[in-house]
Amino acid sequence: MTSFPILRSLEITGYSLYPGEQSRISGFRLNTGFGDGPWIVLGVNGLGKSTLLLLLKHLLIGPVRARDAGFSGDRSDLVGIDSRFFAVRVPDGAANAKASLTFNLGGKLFSVTRRLSDQTLIAATCNATDIGTSESSWRSAIAEGMALDRFEDAVRVIDRIVFKLESSPSLIWDVSAQFEIFRALLTPNRSLELRRLEAEIVSNDSAARNLNATIFKMSQRRDRQLQLLKGSADTQAEIASVSGKLDKARSDEQRGQLTLEASEVRLSDARVRQKRAERDLDARVGAYEDLKFKLLRHAFAGVKPSDQYVFLKLLAEQACLACGNTAPQAAEELARRQSEGLCLVCGSPRHPDKEVVSTTSALKKKATIAFDELEKARAELKLADEEFSQAESARDAAAAHLEQRRTDVDRLAGTLRRLHRKLPAKDRAELAREEDNIERLRREVLRFRKERSDAEDDIASLLEELTVATVAIRTQLEASFLKLSQDFFAEQLRLVYAPRRDRIGQAGRVFEFPAFEIEMTSGATAGEFVRRNVDQVSLSQREYLDITFRMSLLETLSGGGCSLLVDGPEGSLDSVFSGRAGQLFSDFAAHSHRNVILACNIIDGAFLPKTLSAFKGANRKRQRLVNLMELSAPTAALKSLKREYESAVTEVLAAKASKR
Question: Cα–Cα distance between 462 and 523 in angstroms, integer?
């Protein structure tokens, strides 16, 4: 089970953006704690609400972010950010500023302190034990604490799930990002290998395409050279003829290679379907056998276990334990009695009032359904076996065809070399070098394609493992999403498992990647479900569908609590949905070892009252605020309008949250 960070306290000293409680001894100082429940980082424009959330994030991960989602070859999964991001926000460059964060992770208490001038790590502990100031040691501790294989995966999870900032990319609307999240969270021990194979496929695919472009240019140059040669007319004619045949043979070889790759894709897909059908059949057999056992147990109600064994042996194996002979007729008679609901021992009808009769009847109905499903699964497996056999035959035929095309290429290339030797020495040598270079590059293309194909074979089983792990959480994730969203959205909607099919490179095999999508009703569609993309929903729906999906992942996958941080959750809401949103955050945070930290402006309406509705009285609500109007360096607007802002805060905290 993945562990997510639970933020507990933040201390900032010497940073003039947040003077906080200023003293002669310590200078600028902001100190705040985060217990369970909702927290509001409250302020007006320019006070540093977004900066505070960014500071929390980069205290955790340092001056990096996750690269954009997608298949990226050998590029790093981490992208560096300007380490002086916080320094340039203040006049003194944050020369003496530092910030410390404590948080729970995997049942342990971590603390980290960084300089704000360049985000350098200056102290780190785990359960009060020093980790050191090495960034690599800190990264290893974070990955281990989150039960992930790589720090890169930890950054991606923190970026994509824990922190919903203004610059944060969406998750529910980005199926590539979902794959990377599921890879990190559901198969952490396979994440590195999946990433390595992905990079290998992309790199080999790219190398093959680049070499093909080079080969095309070299072939054009060779053809121009042939036109300029002044050798024997007959030889020239033969060379032109053989060169044309060789080019065609090479094109046939490339088409054969593509045909083989396509047949291997079909074979791989057929193998996946066959394995799934085998798993489904095993499950159906197990369910049917279990019902048969229960049915027999009820049929033998009142019979001693030792006596039951005699009849069970006869039913199952048609063997009589008394005489040792096979007894098919006796077995058929027992089976008939069982099917007709008669007593298996004497063959007389059972008493209609006995509970065992009704139980057996119900079990028979279930067994009949289970048998039908078993037969259907057998038929599906038979069909999958036939498809696999056909795909395997097609692959073998494509491989044989390709081998023949390669033989043709080798034969024509040999003929061309013999013809070149008839030309003048200078021209012959130049053409021979060009042909050798072209042939060498063609073999390199085939090698890269072979390496890509081998990597695709390896990654196929890992992706199947990831798919199985995703399907295992599907029901819980969909139910969590439905529960969280039903009181916020007016439309009927649900989260549905909708895997996407895509290539990792620009060519090669098509794979299935786990992903979820939203189905939402619309008044214009007569209540029918329609699939929505990000451009078909309003801004508030877009944002809150993504937030709700993140909440669902946290609920489903967090074993020991979590924090969720959202920047500007009130920005896209109208007066009605602001109250619904506040209740959404309040309900989500109303769990042990869980908190929500929201950075928002002072606004009218029900958002803030609903978010803090579990805390009665203005004083208790005020304790849930990180009030940047008191802790941040004031803006010109705050200086001139401070009384109005303070009055607005008082009114918001005094307001009662209306019932839904």
Answer: 42
pLDDT above 50: residue 357:
no
How much is the average pLDDT of 441-446? 86
Compute the C-alpha angle 213/216/221, nearest 5°: 130
368 φ, ψ (degrees, to nearest 5): -65, -45
Using the predicted structure, report yes or no on whether residue 570 has a pLDDT greater than 60: yes
- How far apart CA 112 and CA 12 sit, in angstroms, is 12
Q: For residues 520 and 491, is the Cβ–Cβ distance under 8 A?
A: yes
For 603-655, the pLDDT digits (tens) are 878 899 999 999 988 889 999 999 999 899 888 888 888 889 888 888 888 87
Taking each helix axis from N to C end, the angle separating 355-420 and 233-299, rounded to the nearest 10 degrees, works out to: 170
What residues contact residue 378 under an 8 Å CB cut-off, 6+ apart? 281
**566 compared with 229, residue with greater pLDDT:** 566
Using one digit for the tens of pLDDT, what is the confidence trace for 451-491? 888 898 899 889 999 999 999 999 999 999 999 988 788 77
What pLDDT band is residue 308 in, cutting at 50, 70 and 90?
low
User: Do 631 and 607 meet the contact criterion of CB atoms below 8 Å apart?
Assistant: no
561's torsion region: left (phi>0), alpha (psi -120 to 50) or beta? left
> What per-residue confidence (pLDDT) applies to 527?
47
Count of C-beta atoms within a 10 Å radius of residue 644: 12
For 196-222, b where at least 16 C-beta lie within 10 A, e where not — what string?
Answer: ebbbbbbbbbbbbeebeeebeeebeeb
Question: Is there a contact between 2 and 148 (Cβ–Cβ < 8 Å)?
Answer: yes
Higher pLDDT, 295 or 411: 411
Q: What percent of the chain has pLDDT over 90?
A: 37
Closest CA to 183 of 66, 59, 60: 66
Q: For the whole model, what pTM was predicted?
A: 0.72
Tokens of residue 584, six digits:
């959404």
Q: Where are the beta strands (DSSP E) in 14-118?
A: 29-33, 37-43, 64-66, 78-80, 98-105, 108-115
- Beta carbons of 154 and 5 less than 8 angstroms apart: no
Which of 64, 71, 50, 23 minimizes the C-alpha distance to 508?
A: 71
The secondary structure element, H or E, covering residue 541 is helix 539-557
Strand ranges for 51-187 from DSSP E: 64-66, 78-80, 98-105, 108-115, 121-126, 129-130, 163-164
In order of 470, 518, 534, 540, the CA distances from 531 in angstroms are 21, 7, 10, 17
The pLDDT of residue 426 is 57
- How far apart CA 449 and CA 149 sit, in angstroms, is 29
Cβ–Cβ contacts within 10 Å for residue 507, how many?
13
Helical H runs in 300-326? 305-317
Token duo for residue 264? 């291997």
Return d(Cα 392, Cα 394) in angstroms, integer: 5
Q: Which DSSP category does 501 fall into?
A: E
d(CA 338, CA 364): 10
Q: Where do we find the tokens 């955790």? A: 60
pLDDT at position 355, please?
A: 47
Tell me the CB-side half-sphere exposure of residue 639, using CA atoms within 13 A: 4
Residue type, 563: S
